[in-house]
Glutamyl-tRNA(Gln) amidotransferase subunit A
Amino acid sequence: AHLDSVQALEPTLHSFISVTADQALAQAQQIDEKIAAGDEIGPLAGIPVGIKDNLCTRGIRTTCASKFLEHFVPPYESTATQRLAEAGAICIGKTNLDEFAMGSSTENSAFQLTANPWDPARVPGGSSGGSAAAVASGECAIALGSDTGGSIRQPAAFCGVVGLKPTYGLVSRYGLVAFASSLDQIGPFGRTVEDAAILLQAVAGHDPKDSTSLKVEIPDYTQCFKPSLKGRRIGVIQETLGEGIDPAVETAVAAAVKQLQELGAEVKTISCPQFRYGVSAYYIIAPSEASANLARYDGVKYGLRSEQSSLLSMYAKTRAEGFGPEVKRRIMIGTYALSAGYYDAYYLKAQKVRTLIKQDFERAFGEVDVLVSPTAPTTAFKAGDVDDPLSLYLLDLMTIPVNLAGLPGMSLPCGFDASGLPIGLQLIGNVLREDLLFEVGHAYE
Ligand code: GLN
């Protein structure tokens, strides 16, 4: 049934770069056989999932929406997708994204534009726009994305679904094509908080193949739902409301906060004064890490190779032809910020700002259990409407601080604007308090 939806909707949506119908049907067949034989089946048995195309899938093309990796077939499987397969989930395809996950609208994909299911003239958000659109439209039940500066939460908000970026280190990054390694996290999309919780449950937990993976007990996330929020302290981040925020977004978030109060939560306003420096620090740190990570695409080790007479000109031509404009911009910014003489002024300074933002959160979590903000300052915009990179970067102001501090953040739907476009509410928790995000989110939805 989901493959039928994919077939019917793809000509409009373009959520998927690859659809793996044959493998999916074969896997479904195997699960049927297991059931018939009375064998044990996993908690996600038969559930169709979409996988962002920057997660390596053995034998299945993994492109990162880049011309560079257009024909790259990984010889190994990412831990997250491996765990999904072990849980019985069926991968129905690889979803579209901004090239190497750099962007906020999926318009930076080298292959296709993904449409927002609520209005195909609009973007689905990004960079995990394909996963968000596929879940919102019913092409798949759940999906995995990655979030370096908002790439799960913002598309979830634009497409009216639930999306969660876990605590840094909760989900193994093994097999996730690296963008900015100190910020990248894999996380779930679902149409409900419960679906997102079930998906996170399947992929979370220690993995010796990722040295930043946390060795912690994973709670049963589906056991943290409660009907009332009595005793919970919720803080509204003052700096994320007011100037620059779409009034419809502000109204919807205010209504959501009121509802949280009616559910029994104690609500107060919290100031995070360093928040406004998040975007500036991120757009030094993320491109710096990206410039180092993307050095591996040299025409020798992976993907594209443009033939040239000398080694140096082969490197240059391959990179010139393989990367799109946004990726090149990030490599240039990162290389500049890391170069001798500029390192202290830019990279080191940005790392200090990162610490200050972290301290804002530490203070806040001394007073409240969960922080609340809009996920994005606007609803989904029309494709082509935000075309200068700086304006796009500025739209990340609410999601980025969460990555800089390594905290869990979730976006869930909290209403619509006058054009009927979904609005996202962001919940932020302290380190490893995904359970609280699920508790509050589930009580609210
Ligand atoms: N929009 C941000 C960027 O372009 C975030 C991307 C992401 O989280 N992968 O870098």
